[in-house]
Specification:
LRR_dom_sf, 22-stranded mixed β-sheet, repeat, disordered N terminus, hydrolase, Rossmann fold, alpha/beta, single chain, RPS4B/Roq1-like_LRR, 7 domains
């Protein structure tokens, strides 16, 4: 049942209400496009739509003339409110002024106008002064003959300026939009009609019950909605969801939980719930257990609205909402179910049984579908009452019966009613057969086929199968009759359970006693009866047998020889010992998993076959000779481990999907596969015996090609110029030695995976032609290094020819779309990473772990969208380049830097950020076991990074339930700045009254330790900490699995949280830490030596920011010293003016010292430069000039990195030139 939201002056439709709502729009937006369309207005429109506020915003493509269009005139009249965004160029537009005049004319009597003065002074609007004076003067010149129009415009501007509104002056755009949306919501929310007049007539779910759900409370509430199938449970749940979802941080409607459980797809629903939180980490949800783990740990401090629709078992509920403490305060969990026992068992606070409709409301719903209005037409009321009585108040039955009588005359209504009277009233399912009887023969067969074989399947594939049976075009007719539905993406075929049961009953009546006489079989008892007793007949058109668990059976398969009209055969999870000697040639679908014979019947020629699926079979081959299968589109032989060869594909020209994954003994791929023009997916994953493929492929439609795990495949085919559709190419784990140069033709390729290709020699230069490439994975690939190209080939440098194992990466120029680059475990040494890696303008994630370089190219620091850098296990790495992060407006960043086990790392990276006042989610720096950092960096640096991170933009981030800032670094001392410290794993803090803190900073020192004694040694050591406010309840337990199980030395961990975790009346807080190894039995350990805490105030960040403004290029080690001595009591940080001056003076003196060192170095270098040309006055003057310019630039911090590099290169070249005459020729 479709759901839409409308506005009206009354909540429920009155008895005589048949007219549509007065307002078609809640808000009309008037604005000058050039000023605000792509900025302020775009954001405002998005927020209004998010609140379900129906807003009219004109299309920029509308033709603009000198007068307002009739379309906009009508939209203004049909809008309840108008928002007028008055911007600097608003008055220059005749169109805008006409809009304004019409808005004021309409809204005086029936609505409200809200002016928003965007970058303009309201007095200029009122008096038409400033920029408005010039615009009005131009209009007066243009409309000399119609000066009255200009006068009306002046009056409208004056009138709108006198209205109460919003001014953008002195407030950020985001806050302004929030205020506007809240004002609009206050005007329209009470007009929300929860019962849509077209679909939801008569539901017994009142406004008072909705208000009960919205009642302010911090409790987590579980609500059960239960009743029989078709009674309207799902519709009510959707209604509630649409009405209140915007009040929650996380909201999710999970439909058809029962079906997902039966299809082992609960993990997909868990991912749907978790995706807004985990985003790119959603791949970590491997199974239902992991999904449950993430749900209870990621949602424990979020206000959640979760709808679980059609739950029929407690086990399903436990995967999503077993306990209340899985969710944050104010959360609402609603389940719909047919089983009242499930509601009682889970102890729901609110239990709502959905009742059938009374006669009045049932008549409204029936009339709405039979006449498209709420009241019966004259002369039909008595007949309508008869239909309503037979429906028994079931909404679904009323809707279907109403549709079946739409546009029928009285005689046809009487005939339908006579049929109804012959059906027992207690057999409610039979009422639905009325619509079935109205179908023609073809649509009846389509309906029964879908009910038995295609419910929940892909719409496109279902239509193809039905077309092959000569049953085309009927799907949409069944949807119109409310017998079928499509999901929200219009891709999955659905059917209500009652209607499906009705279909089963119809077929059962074909032969009530003997299943072999029915047209379709899907209940396993009926199928077993037919096979064991050999009672099959030629009436059987389809069989679908699927056992819950894999079973062996000794059935008589000779019954298949009698099924000469069999079109659908699906057998799953059954190993039948006797295999049929004959299979019907008229099959359209053959799905027989665990097929136990080596061959198909020799006389099997299914030339109408559309889909062939035989997973886990014992087939050795399909057919020895070529066979013509002109309609076959899907072939799935995956995990058939005895399969040795594929068939000849010449006679299968329309094949679209070929899945051979897991066929480990497959040796021969027929060459004809290369010419399948319609093939979109070719999957050879895990085909370990495949050694060769066709020399060239011409698969014009191919989108996905997987050769992953083909460990004996040494060469892949050349690609034709027509293969522009190939998007994903997976070559991981193959034995290929090189990629063909024709790979550059794959202009649509977005993902290339060559991981663990140990024989791969190089990446061809043609890879730079892949403009669409977003993901490139090469970790685990290694080859012998080729010689470095020399600039002077005649003068060999013998020491450049050293041989070693490494990965040779060519130029990366041209890969502008690449978002992920994985070069881990590639044996990369110093200089192997191309300098032009900085040209990857879209790169977000870079993985360089477990390589052998000492440093990284400085160009890595110039990647504008980089969010994640991993260099774990690079034991020779000594330093990282200066990393410059550029934040994008309205993009929530989580910056992550990992250098774990880099034992030679000497210093933390220098960090800087563009657009520092833009918001982002968090920052993670993990330097676990970087023991070289102990003496050089220490805990002071980590403290500096903490405050710098807060200044970067954490003050503006939303309220996330996880720590937004985390750093781990070797160290055993907690900075004195943490003014609350304790030995052990817990501490109690007394909080000052009326605290104004904005952040809570935590720290802890982890003990050095060896791995735990366990048969399966863990890798990660997870940390939980709990916040308990007094008075108040205990806060949620937060998990921070950032540190490793084996620490070479004590480590300092620092994190911070937004202050909202504190209760306003809290005067004491207890923080406790627990650590445990990530094992099923959670082995706890005493890994915390001491811990610390501090409330962070705005003054802490502001003072640091003042120091930063003196020199934006101060690196982290310099910054970290400034706040070290600011350890006052909580709430008093930075209040001492004397200490503030001391910190500033210290930082300033260090700044001058750094500059003097730079100047001295430049002076010394230039002196050498000038000395080498002491006989030349010209060179001496040039050198002096260079020294002066360089000194000035460097002193004021203006020198970009490439300038200094250029200077060094110039000096080196000149010195070498002077020394050349002393070298032997």
């Amino acid at each position: 049942m479709a759901l839409s939201t409308q506005r009206a002056s009354a909540f429920l439709p009155s008895a005589d209400q048949s007219a549509p709502p007065q307002w078609n729009y809640d808000v009309f937006l008037s604005f000058k496009g050039v000023d605000t369309r792509n900025g302020f207005v775009s954001h405002l429109y998005h927020e209004l739509q998010h609140r379900c506020i129906k807003t009219f915003k004109d299309d920029p493509k509308l033709e603009r003339g000198t007068t307002i269009s009739s379309e906009l005139f009508k939209a203004i009249q049909e809008s309840r409110l108008a928002i007028v965004v008055v911007s600097p160029n608003y008055a220059s537009s005749c169109w805008c002024l006409d809009e304004l005049t019409k808005i004021l004319q309409c809204m005086k009597s029936n609505g409200t106008v809200l002016p928003v003065f965007f970058n303009v002074d309201p007095s200029d609007v009122r008096k038409q002064s400033g920029s408005f004076a010039g615009a009005i003067t131009e209009h007066e010149k243009r409309f000399r003959e119609d000066i009255g129009k200009v006068k009306r415009w002046r009056a409208a501007l004056t009138e709108v300026a006198n209205l109460s509104g919003f001014d953008s002056k002195n407030q950020c755009e985001r806050k302004l939009i929030e205020k506007i949306v809240e004002w609009v919501w206050g005007k329209v929310h009470h007009t929300l009609r929860l019962l849509d007049s077209t679909e939801l007539v008569g539901l017994k779910f009142t406004r008072e019950q909705i208000d009960l759900l919205l009642a302010p409370t911090d409790d987590v509430r579980f609500i059960g909605i239960w009743g029989m199938g078709g009674i309207g449970k799902t519709t009510i749940a959707r209604l509630v969801y649409e009405s209140i979802s915007f009040h929650f941080e996380v909201r999710c409607f999970l439909a058809n939980v029962r079906e997902a459980s039966e299809g082992n797809r609960l993990v997909d629903l868990q991912k749907q719930l978790l995706f807004p939180i985990l985003k790119e980490q959603i791949t970590q949800v491997w199974n239902e257990e992991w999904g449950t783990y993430f749900i209870k740990n990621c949602l424990c401090n979020k206000k959640v609205l979760l709808i679980l629709d059609d739950v029929n078992a407690s086990s399903q509920l436990e995967k999503f909402a077993k306990e209340k403490d899985w969710f944050g305060k104010g959360s609402i969990i609603i389940i719909t179910t047919r089983d009242e026992r499930l509601v009682k068992k889970h102890d729901m606070e609110i239990s709502y049984k959905v009742q059938g409709l009374n006669d009045d409301k049932a008549l409204k719903l029936f009339s709405r579908n039979a006449f498209k209005k709420f009241e019966p037409e004259e002369g039909f009321r008595e007949l309508c009452n008869c239909f309503v009585n037979y429906a028994g108040g079931l909404p679904l039955a009323l809707k279907i019966l109403g549709c079946s009588t739409y546009k029928r005359d009285r005689d046809e209504w009487k005939n339908e009613l006579d049929k109804l009277r012959k059906i027992p009233k207690i057999e409610i399912f039979n009422l639905l057969k009325i619509s079935f009887d109205r179908l023609d023969e073809m649509n009846k067969n389509i309906f029964l086929d879908v009910a038995f074989f295609h419910k929940g399947k892909d719409k496109k594939k279902v239509i193809e199968i039905l077309d092959s049976c000569g049953r085309c075009g009927g799907i949409n007719a069944l949807v119109e009759k409310s017998l079928l539905t499509f999901d929200i993406l219009n891709s999955i075929v659905g059917m209500h359970d009652l209607i499906q049961e009705m279909a089963f009953q119809i077929v059962r009546q074909e032969s009530p006693e003997e299943p072999g006489g029915r047209s379709r079989l899907c209940h396993h008892n009926d199928i077993i009866h037919v096979l064991i007793n050999n009672t099959a007949t030629n009436k059987i058109q389809g069989i679908a047998l699927s056992m819950v668990k894999l079973e062996k059976a000794d059935w008589n398969c000779e019954a298949f020889s009698k099924m000469i009209n069999l079109k659908f055969l699906e057998v799953d999870n059954v190993i039948i010992s006797s295999i049929p000697r004959i299979l019907p040639n008229c099959l359209r679908i053959l799905k027989w998993n665990w097929y136990s014979s080596k061959y198909l019947p020799s006389n099997f020629q299914p030339n109408k076959l559309v889909s062939l699926e035989m997973q886990d079979s014992k087939l050795v081959r399909l057919w020895d000779e070529r066979i013509d299968l002109p309609n076959l589109k899907y072939m799935d032989l995956s995990w058939s481990q005895n399969l040795a060869a594929t068939p000849n594909f010449t006679g299968i020209p329309k094949l679209q999907m070929l899945d051979l994954k897991g066929c480990e003994n497959l040796v021969e791929i027929h060459p004809s596969v290369a010419y399948l023009k319609w093939l979109t997916d070719l999957i050879l994953y895990g085909c370990k015996s495949v050694k060769s493929l066709p020399r060239e492929v011409e698969m014009d439609s191919l989108i996905y090609l997987s050769l992953c795990g083909c460990s004996k495949l040494k060469k892949i085919p050349e690609f034709s110029e027509q293969m522009e559709n190939l998007s994903k190419l997976n070559l991981s784990g193959t034995a290929i030695e090189k990629l063909p140069s024709s790979i550059g033709r794959l202009v649509g390729l977005t993902s290339l995976d060559v991981r663990n290709c140990t024989n791969l020699l190089d990446l061809p230069s043609a890879i730079c032609n892949l403009k669409s490439l977003k993901k490139l994975c090469v970790d685990g690939s290694s080859v012998e290094m080729i010689k470095v190209r020399r600039s002077q080939p005649n003068k060999s440098r013998f020491w450049w020819g050293l041989q070693r194992k490494a990965f040779v990466l060519g130029s990366l120029h041209g890969l502008w779309s690449l978002k992920l680059l994985d070069l881990s475990i590639c044996g990369l040494c110093e200089g192997d990473i191309p300098v032009d890696i900085g040209c990857l303008s879209s790169l977000e994630e870079l993985n360089l772990s477990r390589n052998n370089f000492v440093s990284l190219p400085a160009s890595i620091g110039c990647l504008p969208k980089l969010k994640s850098l991993k260099a774990n296990g690079c034991q020779k790495l000594q330093q990282l380049p200066h990393l410059r992060f550029g934040l994008v407006e309205n993009d929530f960043y989580s910056i992550r830097i990992y250098t774990e086990d880099c034992t030679s790392l000497k210093m933390l990276p220098k960090l800087s950020i563009k657009n520092r006042r833009r918001s982002y989610v968090g920052f993670v720096l993990s330097c676990v076991n970087c023991i070289g950092l102990v003496e050089n960096e220490g805990c002071d640096a980590i403290l500096g990074m903490l405050l710098i991170g807060l200044d970067w933009g954490f003050l503006q981030v939303p309220r996330w339930n996880i720590p937004t800032f985390q750093i781990v670094i070797p160290g055993s001392r907690i900075p004195e700045w943490f003014n609350n410290q304790s030995v052990g794993d817990s501490l109690i803090v007394e909080l000052p009254p009326c605290t104004t803190s904005i952040w809570i900073a935590f720290c802890a020192v982890f003990e050095e330790g060896a791995p735990v004694d366990h048969p399966n040694p863990p890798h990660d050591l997870s940390t939980y900490f709990r916040i308990e406010c007094r008075p108040g309840e205990g806060g949620p337990v937060r998990c921070n699995p950032i540190t490793k199980g084996h620490l070479l030395s004590p480590h300092l961990w620092v994190s911070c949280l937004y202050h909202y975790v504190l209760d306003k009346e809290c005067n004491q807080m207890k923080i406790s830490f627990r650590t445990f190894y990530d094992l099923p039995d959670r082995i706890y350990c005493s890994g915390i030596r001491k811990c610390g805490f501090r409330l962070v105030h705005k003054q802490d960040v502001e003072e640091l920011n003042q120091i930063m403004m003196m020199n934006h290029s101060i690196d982290i080690s310099t910054k970290a010293t400034s706040p070290h001595n600011s350890h006052n009591s909580a709430g008093a940080s930075g209040s001492s003016h004397q200490k503030s001056l001391c910190r500033k003076s210290y930082a300033l003196s260090k700044w001058f010292l750094t500059k003097l060192v730079k100047i001295f170095s430049l002076f010394l270098t230039t002196a050498i430069f000038m000395k080498s040309f002491n006989n030349s006055k010209k060179w001496g003057r040039i050198g002096l000039l260079i020294w002066r310019v360089t000194t000035f630039i460097c002193f004021f911090g203006l020198a970009p990195p490439y300038f200094l590099l250029l200077l060094k290169t110039l000096i080196k070249a000149v010195i070498l030139k002077r020394a050349a005459k002393f070298l032997p020729t």
